[in-house]
Amino acid sequence: MKAIQAVRGMRDITPDESGRWSAIERSIANVFSRYGYREIRMPLVETTGLFHRSIGEITDIVEKEMYTFPDRNNESLALRPEGTAGCVRAVIENGLLNVPQKLWYCGPMFRYEKPQKGRHRQFHQVGAEVFGHPDVNVEAEMLLLNQRFWNDLGVAKNVSLELNNIGDSVARAHFREALVTFLSAHTKSLDSDSLRRLDSNPLRILDSKNKDTQSLLNDAPKMAEFLSTDSVDRLEQLTRILQGQGIKVKHNQRLVRGLDYYNDTVFEWVSNDLGAQGTVCGGGRYDKLVEQLGGKPTPAIGFAMGLERLYLLLEANQFAALSDNHNPDAYLIVAASSCQEYAFNVAEKIRNALPDFAIMQNLAATSMKSQFKKADKSNAKYALVIGEDEVEKRTVSFKHLDTGEQVSFSTADELTSLINYLGTIN
Predict the structure, then answer these.
(1) Which of 343, 338, 363 minimizes the C-alpha distance to 415?
(2) H-helix or E-strand containing 386?
(3) Which CA distances in Å does 389 have to 7, 116, 229, 342, 367?
């Protein structure tokens, strides 16, 4: 029979990779904790209407990329394509908006798009949302938190910050009108996607990767020309704070992000190490979304970071600052099946006494030579050896796999001497 394979665009994370994934996630969770964020976990499935109302019906995600399906009650459901809408729904539904909130989450998202390196149909994001802080300080702290990620993961020199302010709804309406007027006079220079967006979502044309369209946009109206004084001041203040903390800021007037709910500050962290998929992290302010989804008016800001792209970025830099050591400290070699009961007794007493000491116990009836080869392959530092003599004498033989030094310990004293020894050398 033909073997069943994973769905196209959805991949397995094998044990060879998962140790590094876990190390990345632990490092990120540690940074969130240091900045006072708390974790929230939302469902993978939401009502389709949630994303229509939040992301916007005339966006690539809703029009082309969402996995939607009817349930048995014929209600339209969707696999979540992003995390912000679900998080906003959760804080409203669970009454979490009485006080300011700093929340983060991590998990799979789903979009039906062409699979390529760094882009999959099931992908993983770390996201954060902050509710109840209207001023620029929360934006500065969030970007400093992002910078802390890059510092701790050893890629600070490989990412750069692009920043823009897209103004309030009034400024965007005026800019949109001016942009449409300009582009309508140059439709022959627009690519097919841009022509489609001209009537539905013209600001997205600023994101076009088409060279002719990008060249045309050099002469187009600029968002900065339509910003209010408050928006201009916000951008200048945020830039000043970040530069004061040593972060280089590039103002990118074509940065608009791909979702309808953003206002004022938007940002992306980009890298030249990832080719076409250069954005590692992005986000912005969305002060109207909570009210739009049925909550009380609440200022908010958030970001999302793609873990697949972050993994590729770390891989390109040889995982320089990432500790992903999941090798056992000791490999427990058991000479015969009759010795396994005693071996379990020894292994569990060591694990109880030394919770951070990892032991891989051989469970199969194989030769001692084969087990020592497995011990070397496991990259364990030590071998604990139990044979019939050790069982009879109630001892454990200990061997340094690098130096070959051997020691024998009695277990009559509840392994105290062996445990003390392991505690000093590990």
Answers:
(1) 343
(2) strand 382-386
(3) 53, 57, 84, 12, 16
Give the C-alpha separation, 53 to 293, whole Å. Answer: 7
Q: Whole-angstrom Cα distance, residue 12 to residue 35?
A: 32
Element (H, E) at 343: helix 340-353
Sheet containing 68-70: order of strands: 45-47, 76-79, 68-70
- Which pair of structure tokens corresponds to residue 154? 């050893």
What b/e string do you get for 309-325 counting C-beta neighbours within 10 Å, with b at 16 or more? bbbbbbeebebeebebe
CB 36 within 8 A of CB 84: no
Q: How do residues 138-173 score in pLDDT, each as one tens digit? A: 999 999 999 999 999 999 999 999 999 999 889 888
Instruction: State the Cα–Cα distance between residues 366 and 375, nearest whole angstrom.
Output: 13
Q: What is the pTM of this model?
A: 0.84
Per-residue model confidence as pLDDT tens digits over 10-22: 999 998 888 889 9
Distances, alpha carbon 378 to alpha carbons 336, 351, 359, 361, 418, in Å: 20, 18, 11, 11, 22
